[in-house]
Design brief:
Layout lengths: L5 E15 L5 E7 L4 E4 L3 E7 L4 E6 L4 E5 L11 H10 L3 E4 L9 H8 L3
Parallel strand pairs: 1-6
Antiparallel strand pairs: 1-2, 1-7, 2-3, 4-5, 5-6
Length: 117
């Protein structure tokens, strides 16, 4: 996949990873420095995060690249306005995903793309 340049949202801080329970799609939720409010990204296909430097990046299905700064936050979807609106609009349930030091992101999703059913 070819990544586009850094998205217009630029850097996302105070970010967390949430998963759509019904489809296992994952999205980054956090504060956009460009818009100065919280955003939720399109489905994320891959991301990298270095716990030592507290820096990372995420790439969406459409190839948009986001820069991630700061320590990951575990958001409760029912307590965040944007996440509640996302759940209502898409008729789904969001579940927070804990980011560990050895988080194998989308290994199953990537395998499914590489090995068609």
């Amino acid at each position: 996949m070819e990544a586009r340049s850094l998205s217009e949202c630029g850097v996302i801080s105070n970010w967390g990873l949430v998963e759509v329970q019904e489809t296992q799609e994952q999205h980054i939720f956090g504060h956009s420095s460009h818009y100065d409010f919280f955003i939720i990204t399109q489905q994320v296909t891959d991301f990298h995060y270095d716990f030592k430097t507290r820096q990372g990046s995420a790439i969406t299905d459409s190839g948009i690249l986001y820069s991630l700064t700061g320590k990951p936050v575990l958001y409760k979807p029912n307590k965040q306005l944007q996440l509640r609106e996302f759940m209502e609009k898409n008729n789904c349930v969001l579940v927070p995903v804990k980011i560990g030091r050895f988080h194998f992101f989308h290994l199953n999703a990537l395998a499914k793309k590489l090995i068609p059913e």
